[in-house]
Amino acid sequence: MSLLKSLTSNTVQKRLFASLRDKAPKITPQELYEPVFEDSKVYPEYSTINVRLQSYNFVPLEKYEGYVHRIAKKFKFEIVDCYAVAAQTQNIQTYKPNSTVVDSEIELSKYDRTVRISQVPSIRLPLFISLIQTHAPIGIEITVKEHEKVDEDNRYIPDLMLKEKQLELKALDDPAIRRNLGWE
């Protein structure tokens, strides 16, 4: 019986010691062949960046906007918004040679798409811009700049009838107009 007690007490004592496997650091499969180096540097971030894409050709512009969106996700930027702005149309006239007679009239539409991103580290932005400029299709203009209030205002189409009614309401505050209407 004493032999059995001594065996159980020895096994208990052995279990208190950590094995070599328990002492070794846990390694994930990504760290197996290449170690992970922690980047202790802190880089400043841009608050919000607008990537504006413009083209006369609608289909490549739409496809490319999706590409820019996917690349921004791969760079781990936060995509705030992606939106289309109303197309700007221009009438272009071609003239017959050596005359002022109009030969043909063409209406061109310039389409506009914007991808708004935030949390952009300043160290990654040049690489992102270089990548999207390199892969840009022919005919697409790219503008990258910080977000401003003007960009938000250009997004919406103004309601001319609403503005006209607002001006009428403001005009009713004029004392001369109120007297003419018989309100005073």
Automatic annotation (TrEMBL):
Keywords: Ribonucleoprotein, Ribosomal protein. The keyword Thylakoid does not apply. SUPFAM superfamilies: Ribosomal protein S10 (SSF54999). Residues 50-145 form the Small ribosomal subunit protein uS10 domain. GO terms for cellular component: mitochondrial ribosome; ribonucleoprotein complex. SMART domains: Ribosomal_S10 (SM01403). This is Ribosomal protein S10 domain-containing protein. It comes from Panagrolaimus superbus.
